[in-house]
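Exercise: predict the structure of this protein bound to zinc ion.
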Amino acid sequence: MQKLHFFILLFFLLFKTGWAQRPLQPNAAEIYHQIQKLNFLGSVLYVAAHPDDENTRLISYFSNYTNARTGYLSLTRGDGGQNLIGPEMRELLGVIRTQELIEARKIDGGEQFFTRANDFGFSKNPEETFQIWDKNEILSDVVWTIRKFQPDIIINRFDHRTPGTTHGHHTASALLSVEAFDKAMDDTAFPSQLKYVSVWKPKRLFFNPSWFFFGSKEKFEKADKSGYSQLQIGTFYPSSGKSNQEIAALSRSKHQSQGFGSTGARGEEYEYLELLKGESLKEKNAVFEGIDTSWNRLEGGEAIGKILYQAEQDFDFKNPSSIVPDLIKAYELIQKLKDNHWKTIKSEELKNIIAACTGLYLEAVSDKQEITPESLMNVKWEAINRSTVPIKLNGLLTNPESTIDFKPVDLKSNISNTSNFEMKIPEDFEYTNAYWLNEANENGMYCVNDQQKTGLPDIIRKIAVTFNIEINGVNIPFTRNIVYKYNDDVKGEVYQPLDVVPLVTAAIAEKVYTFNNNDDRGINVEVIAGKDNIKGSIKLEVPYNWKVSPNEIPFSIEKKGQDFSAVFKVAPSEEISESLIKAKVTIDSQTYDKDKTDINYPHIYKQMVLKPATAKAIHFKIKTKNERIAYIKGAGDEMPKCLQQMGYFVEIINPEQISTKKLMGFDVIITGIRAYNVVNALAFKQDILLDLVKKGKTMIVQYNTLDDLVTKKIAPYPIKISRDRVTEEQAEVRFLNPKHKVMNYPNKITTEDFKGWKQEQGLYYPNEWDANFTPILSANDKGESPKNGALLVAKYGKGHYIYTGLSFFRELPEGVPGAYRLLANMIAIGN
Ligand SMILES: [Zn+2]
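Solution:
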């Protein structure tokens, strides 16, 4: 029990990311930089709302030039955005963006934090944001991060004084940061946190203005910036051969799901900071003024500084291990520090430097990437000292505990020591999962019940080996997560995290099932084995007045990873209803109800997400005519699947397939969201498409943003896309043309159909259009003028052209009946 305790303590204290997978092997220049950072005792926390809000030039500057501990607190994980690289949306997109931020920080040298706030989508001002976020709870998370990270300086990306000029989350992040600056030092604020952390008083709070607050780069050039601190951030680092901006660009380019590939610059450039709170500056650009960032900052620090400043001076790029005796002396002194905060941080930094200087390579590798509770894995460990410094390996401790046949061993210079042991994962061991997704989230916030987990960026991995190392007679424990690695014929050595998975997982084929009448339909459930030789039965739970048959289906699977496909017939209740269908697998009277999603992209580590194995089932009255639909994909959405659900024949048409001959066989052409932003070929194919409309086809174009349109001729008649949107999903919808066919055939649309919409009504509505267009709907957010461009219908030749900014791409996967009914009418308009 004591052992377990030791590990958990360690995991919560060491929130630095990056050591869970491929071992770091810094070169001499990198080690030297780590020593410079070791000798700087100051911290900066950058605060904003989303992945991509952070100014990587400034983060890199503070981390690599100033050598400060530099953190980025992103209030959200960016779950509400669109995904440019794959189908993941919502929480799964949040998982991808989390990893992108972690990878970005590995490049710019920062650390990453989050709050529990969920990125629920766009809001126009902070009041709207705080209607959905529990302000006090998110404030408590910002205070927690400040108390835990103890920044000397806090920098806001956004201006707290200009609500309504940017995304409401942005202004909210600044408002919360301003409030937290004072609350962090107030022991009456969030006192339950003080069990784990102390109050903290940051020295200064800044705002980091940028040209976009001034309207244009030219206006910013001309603006009076004499009141600001000015930092020349165009440093060139010979140790890495890169300019600060080049490092910042590499970091920013990690945001692949947002398409933020970025090109670095070279040469002098400036960043500006406006002091908002805290001690005024005598020397305006010395933002750390009055903060002792040397070892003298700490009681007992002077003696440590004496050793470590000398070690920095004595560093020998040809033989980094020559300073190890001094580093060991410093390590011992650091263990005696009273200040637990710096003791933990500097111990860990110094341990990494000692390992790097001695070429000490410690690793523990499992023979499996996935393991189920109660099963065995073989772990191969390796320890090698690639210096002449005397090092002993005195013991191995593991979590979970296992018995290892081990004798202390001298790690002789450049002689490899490897061995194996078996480890059993206990029955009650927690499955690997993003900790913030373990509980169902409430609107606007992830549910995290453990204060100490709050804000941690990554999955908490607890399966580890601690190598008890003795260097120069001093015991230093080094903990390494057990990882999985294999050799790929093309990529070479591939590292993956070790995941604890359920014995069996189940996946219902679709997220939403729509029932247009009382007929039953087949629902496919795939059971996937997490282990060899499993036997059991699968059930589908439906609401009490729905019917399912058979009651259960037995299965047996021989090999881990293999699946078994079960088909149930489900019939809806007589009345209109919507509900959840749940898949439940029983093996030896144990129930398993998780669905496992793997996320695999080359720029991040493999991710596994466990969610309840459920699907939404909706019984509604919807009429469709059997139209054939050609779908041209945009920036990724699940609409084609939903259309198939509705009973349409749907074919995905690649841009190069667009031709009159190919499309003549269809009734309706639909373009995916932002197709005219991301599909370049549409610039050349647009005439063909519009000509097809003229000949009698229906074309439905979903929202595009106004920047980077591939063609100006997006519609047969002039239309002007704007930034108009209706973010209040419950905003009243008024019918401008209630008699129009699209409102009546084959489904009679009423205000009922606009109830239960999720996240927003729509976005990037046109605000000007030709007289040939008929506007159908009008709505607006509180306090705004009516927005009438949500749905525009035009007759063109013998056909119909429809432009819509309504968020069908969100509503259909969420199973919103009204969205289905309206879409069915749009599809049927030429019928
Ligand atoms: Zn943002």
